[in-house]
C-alpha cells in the first residue's frame, strides 16, 4: 500500500521534530515503520526527519560545530535495517533532573497508589515509576510503603457498590461506641489519607459517612440496595448539624486552608501573630485527630472541656514515651 505524503508547514515540522527527538531517545531502538505509525506520518517523512536531526546540534564555545556538537545515529542500522538508533545526542541532558530524594518521594507516592485495588496491575503507574527512576540525577533510595490497614476493606466496599448490594459491618465511632451496621453503599470519598464510605444506614435511617479504618467484619449481602433517589445526598464529606460543637482555635495562617472543611464561618481575628477562628466539629473527640495532624500549628482556646480533652490526650501520649524509655 502506497503511503500518501502530506507536506508539513514549517511550524508543524518544528513541533514534529521536537516530539520525535525525545521519542527516539526513549525508545532507544525503533524501526521507521513503528515511528511512522506512532506519529501518523509516512515512512519517508520519518526518514527525512532523522536525516535532519543528524545534521542538528548545538555549537560549542568557538561558535562552530565539532563532531560532538551534533546528533549522531547508527547509519548502518538506519540504511540496512530501517532502524533508528541515536548514538549521540546534545542539549537534552541539560534539562532539569529530579534529585534522588525528590524522585524517591514521588516513587513512594506511586507505590501507594499502585497498592490500591482500583490501580492493580496499572501499566501507566509502572511506566511512570520506571521513568522517574531513569530520569533522576542519582539512584533513588528504596522506600518501603506500609499497606494501609483500610486497604483490606476497600475491595469488599467497592464490590458492594459496583454490584448494588447491601454491606454489613461492625463500626466503632470516634466516641468508642460500637455496633453492627447494615447499609446501602452509595460511594467512597477520601480526606487526606483516610477513606470514607458514604451510605444509607438502615440503623440510623439516614445517610452517614463511615471511616473505613473503623469498619471490621465486612460482609457483602445478597440483598440489593433500595432506591434512594429521593434522598438529599451531600456532595461534601462533612456536613454540619444542630448538635455540632463550636471550638475556638488559634491557627497559623499557612495552615488555615487545611481547616476549610471545618470552619463555622469566614470570620478571622489576628491574635499574637495567628488567626483566631471557630471550627465546627461533630464532637470534641474529633478535635484530637485534627490537632495531631497539624502539630504546633493549632492551639485550642475554648471551650474549656475541649482544651482539657486535648491536654489529657497529649499528656497520655507523652506518658507513653516516658514508659518506653524506662523499658
TrEMBL record:
GO terms for molecular function: DNA binding. Coiled coil: none annotated. Residues 245-316 form the WCX domain. It holds the Pfam family WCX. Residues 12-134 form the PafC HTH domain. Keywords: DNA-binding. Residues 154-219 form the WYL domain. InterPro entries: CBASS_pafABC_assoc_protein (IPR051534), PafC-like (IPR028349), PafC_HTH (IPR043839), WCX_dom (IPR057727), WYL_dom (IPR026881). It comes from the Bacteria. The keyword DNA-binding applies. PANTHER family: PROTEIN PAFC, PTHR34580. This is DNA-binding transcriptional regulator. It comes from Agromyces aureus.
